[in-house]
Structures are given as C-alpha cells and as structure tokens.
C-alpha cells in the first residue's frame, strides 16, 4: 500500500477545517437569485478577488463529452446569470448548439462558500449585448472581432495580423458594433445550490458535515421555488 501511495503525484493533501457558522433555512431568501445577490454582495464586501469568477460547464451531444472553463459573470437579472463570449467557433458554442443545458460553479474560498447553478441557456439579442460591449475598453472590443476563438493558428503573428485588420476596419469609429458571433448568454436556472463549509455538529466536533440547500423549480417560467436541505 505504501508503494502504491508513493507512485501517486498527489496523494491526500492536508484537509482544512472550517469555522463558518451554520446555515439554516430561515437564513435563505425565497428566491435563489435574491439569495445569490446577497452572497455576492457579501463577497464583494469581504474583498474577495473577482467574486464574479465562475466555472462554466457544458456538454456536447450526442457524445456527452463535458468541457469546462473559467469565465466572468457580467450580469444578474430577473431571469438568470449572464456571461459573454464567442458563440461561433468556440468549444462552448458547439456544446450549447447541441445541448442547451449548462452549469456554473462559484467558489469563494475565503468565505467558505460555494454556489452551483444549473439551467437552460438562451442568447441575448444583439441590442442587449451591445449595451455591455460598449463598456469594454477599445482593445477588448477589437479583440472580440479579431479572435476566432479555439481555432488552431500557426503562431501569434496570425493573431496580430487579424487584430491589425480589425483596427484598420474601425480606425475612424469610436462606436464599434458588437460582432454577430459574440454576445451574451443567459443561464436561466432551474436548480441552484448553496454550500457553506462548516463544522456544524454540536460540542465543537470537527465534522466536515457542510450545510447544503438546493432550490428547484418545475419550469423556467415558474416563480415558485422549492428549498430542500441536502446531505453533504
């Protein structure tokens, strides 16, 4: 057994213990979007670095092959969670085209909290995407036009040539239109789970029995959510 353990590149990293107070159902908002906003605001106040950082997971059908990448949450509205990206050549674009379901995972380590989101994706209109696109610095707007995201290239010179072509195209324009292949994707949730990493058993026993609550609803058009405590 010791020999097998020595063959592992990583084996049983040291476990941390957690000190966050217990989470109960009375602490939760009836809506997971409102609850998420409360936790996100707390993360900002806690000086968490870029609390909008999230892992977007998608799966391609019919293969079922799963892929994940780090993106940034840019908007939260009454319908759901919005990110922005390329929806033409990227791996996630192909996944979403074949399978509209996606998931987000937020992890705020310093606050010992995690949020998991699952739902149906929908594209924002060009008009909606333009509003956010206008807030980006010019270089980012040029880059959105120039990049054929996930396409293989011989070297960086190819990318720099594409950038120069876009800069020339828009050299006299302050207002750059949002690319037709780029924009917002909203994940409309039907499942949202809140985790607090806590040692919540009595008598200060170390337990790792975290508090988990799941919000579920029957359809994306329903305003009624069921809240259930889950075993960690």
From TrEMBL:
Molecular function terms, GO-annotated: FMN binding; pyridoxamine phosphate oxidase activity
**Boundaries of every Pyridoxamine 5'-phosphate oxidase N-terminal domain copy:** 47-168
Q: Which organism does this sequence originate in?
A: Tuber melanosporum (strain Mel28)
Q: Does the keyword Hydrolase apply?
A: no
Q: Which biological process terms from the Gene Ontology are attached to this UniProt entry?
A: pyridoxine biosynthetic process
Question: Which of UniProt's keywords are assigned here?
Answer: Flavoprotein, FMN, Oxidoreductase
* Name this polypeptide is given: pyridoxal 5'-phosphate synthase
The EC number(s) given in the record are: 1.4.3.5
Question: What PANTHER family does the database record attribute to this sequence?
Answer: PYRIDOXINE-5'-PHOSPHATE OXIDASE, PYRIDOXINE-5-PHOSPHATE OXIDASE
**Species classification:** Eukaryota, Fungi, Dikarya, Ascomycota, Pezizomycotina
What's its top-level EC category?
Answer: oxidoreductase
Give all residue intervals belonging to the Pyridoxine 5'-phosphate oxidase dimerisation C-terminal domain: 182-232
């Amino acid at each position: 057994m010791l020999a097998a353990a020595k063959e592992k590149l990583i084996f049983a990293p040291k476990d941390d213990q957690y000190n966050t107070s217990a989470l109960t159902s009375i602490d939760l908002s009836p809506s997971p979007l409102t609850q998420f906003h409360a936790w996100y605001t707390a993360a900002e106040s806690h000086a968490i670095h870029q609390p909008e950082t999230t892992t977007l997971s998608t799966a391609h059908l019919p293969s079922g092959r799963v892929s994940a990448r780090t993106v940034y949450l840019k908007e939260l509205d009454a319908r759901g969670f919005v990110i922005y990206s390329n929806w033409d050549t990227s791996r996630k674009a192909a996944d979403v085209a074949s399978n509209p379901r996606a998931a987000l995972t937020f992890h705020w380590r310093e606050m010992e909290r995690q949020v998991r989101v699952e739902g149906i994706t929908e594209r924002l209109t060009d008009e909606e995407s333009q509003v956010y696109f206008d807030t980006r610095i010019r270089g980012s707007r040029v880059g959105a036009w120039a990049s054929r995201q996930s396409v293989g290239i011989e070297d960086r010179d190819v990318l720099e040539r594409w950038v120069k072509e876009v800069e020339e195209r828009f050299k006299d324009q302050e207002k750059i239109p949002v690319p037709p292949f780029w924009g917002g994707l909203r994940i409309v949730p039907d499942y949202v789970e809140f985790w607090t990493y806590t040692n919540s058993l009595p008598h200060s026993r170390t337990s790792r029995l975290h508090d988990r609550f799941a919000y579920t609803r029957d359809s994306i058009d329903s305003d009624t959510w069921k809240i259930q405590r889950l075993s960690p």
